[in-house]
Amino acid sequence: MIMKKSIKFIILLIVAVLVLMLAICIGSVFITPSDIFKIIVSKLFDIHFDVPPIESNMVIFLKIRLPRALLSFIVGGMLAVSGVLSQSVLRNPLASSYTLGISSGAAVGASIAILFGFSFFGILTLPFFGLSFGLLTVFLAVALATKLDRNMGNITIILTGMAFSMFANAVIAFIMAFANQTAKQITFWQLGSFALKDWTHPILLFPIAMIGIFVVMFFSSEMDLMTFGEEQAKASGVNVLSVKWMLLAVGAILTGCAVSIAGVIGFVDLFTPHMARRIFGSRHKIVIPATALMGGIFMTLCDLVARTIVAPVELPVGAVTSAIGAPFFIFLYFQGKGGQRNA
Amino acid sequence: MLNVQNVSAGYDERKVLHDISFSVPTGENLSIIGPNGCGKTTLLRTIANIIKFDGDIYIDNQNIKNMNRKSLAGKIALFSQMTTIYFDYSIYDTVMMGRYSKKKRRLLSDIDESDVTSVKSALKTVGLLDISSQSISTLSGGQLQRVLLAKALVQEPDMILLDEPTNHLDLYFQIELIDFLRSWAKKNGKSVIGVLHDINLAVRLSDRILLMNNGRIQAIGTPEEVLNSRIIEPVYKINVGNYMRESLRIWESLS
């Protein structure tokens, strides 16, 4: 079916709003859309209704569901965009912050901050540690992968990522052994969750996400060219070395901040860029915003599943994304083996 | 005018090029030939300033080391064989990428009238205008090479560097491509520098031939000067002339 990309994008926006609504309505207490409408209108315009929304619903909506839905959406978008970056810049469909071990690296940073009870940047401490360790890992991982294999083949990427993730998990295990009482808090970092979050977190991440995505979009032409290989990109006039490291750094910052708030959530960054490309083609000018939205949609849905499927018990959201993402990863690998086009 | 002066280059510790100097006047085509591993492609990469090198390369009296990538891309385009397509683009979008060095940086739409005109005319030249919305992963090897050729053309360079572009092409496309590039250069007063394995194609393309061996220039001159057995045989270690005559004999006995 041929549909204009702008129409597809508008549909995507509508889906995003619907999914957010769904995530807000569904839960231990069902809040009707009309209640939500009333709450928003009464808050914004100070209008009172004859049948006012239930007071407790108002609290659940404003204090729990809305910040959580927004947080999962923002985190999903941040991770997904970092995935587009790694795939295009490293020219490998299997690359992502998660598969490269950058997420785990960021989690080590966050664990260290928790273990030592650091708080010198206040609320920004965890994101700061997350992004610093994310940056460190991306630098090490890509430097090592380049050293092993100039062309950065699939196997190199996977092995490097595995090595880094395992090492990071070992470090986290050490940290946990030292910190019994905070261990539970750290364990959660390894699978990710949006439980027990309030407005401070989405408010904190939103500007970082917007700036990050804006910067990335500014370099969409360069990214288009880089998918044809570094040599081709250089010969077309792209300053490959600086653009590459700058974009990888932005990716690590997006990942690091998201991970420091929500924990390691796998495969969103791998999965959604491919979905976006399938629907919108490969041009980054459209793929980047589309991936951000799709990452948000996917993550919000996964979180909805995580907190409702075996309620009242809540699953870590990373378990849900991995359950969907891991088979996809295998599929992509084998498809890549047979389907990659050599000409 | 391209002027290569005392260029040496290599990868890590391994030196591939040793003290290469030559020049190519505007409007002249040059083929670079030589056995595998003699440094042909490396030489091409230094001219495109893709790898580090010692010595100096001037294009129109400007040292390429002092040029930024965009202005160099306005002078020199590189056209090589496609390796792997990881992410799919339409033919039109792929060719439009070649306009990168001409564009001003803008967030929303950085495509203007001149970009569209240039891309359309290049697509028409390579005969792909009618299917320009098709995605490049559906194309044959020959069609894909034409897309990449169009991408190099819209860069509007003074010189196109070819890196064994005929490797995956059948005979028809090989000849078509080489003839096209020759007439493009002659018509517009531009230059083509091509790394070619096939000596017949090298002769067909160029005014002069540069023969390399072990990272050094063995000979440079017109085909008559370079392609005589005294010069070429020690390099290729076979009697090239005999091979060609034998091929012709076989061919004549067939028809």
Q: What can you tell me about this protein's structure?
A:
The complex is a heterodimer of chains A (343) and B (255). Chain A is mostly helical and 343 residues long. Chain A has helices at 5-25, 33-45, 55-89, 97-100, 102-115, 125-148, 154-178, 183-191, 200-218, 220-226, 230-235, 240-262, 268-280, 284-308, 317-339, and one strand spanning 341-342. Chain A has one domain (69-337): ABC transporter involved in vitamin B12 uptake, BtuC (Orthogonal Bundle). In chain A, helix 3 (55-89) packs across helix 13, helix 5 (102-115) packs parallel to helix 7 (154-178) and helix 9 packs antiparallel against helix 14 (284-308). Chain A starts with a helix and ends with a strand. With 255 residues, chain B is α/β, with parallel strands linked by helices. Chain B has a single domain (2-85, 156-254), classed as P-loop containing nucleotide triphosphate hydrolases (Rossmann fold, 3-Layer(aba) Sandwich), CATH 3.40.50.300. Chain B is 39% helix and 25% strand. In chain B, strand 4 and strand 5 (62-63) form a beta hairpin. The A-B interface holds A 87-88, 91-93, 217-218, 221-222, 224-225, 227-229, 231-232, 234-239, 277, 281-283, 340-343 and B 45, 48-50, 68-70, 72-74, 76-78, 80-90, 93, 97-98, 100-101, 103, 105, 107, 110, 135, 137, 139, 141, 144, 151, 155, 161, 168. Strand 1 (341-342) of chain A pairs antiparallel with strand 7 of chain B.
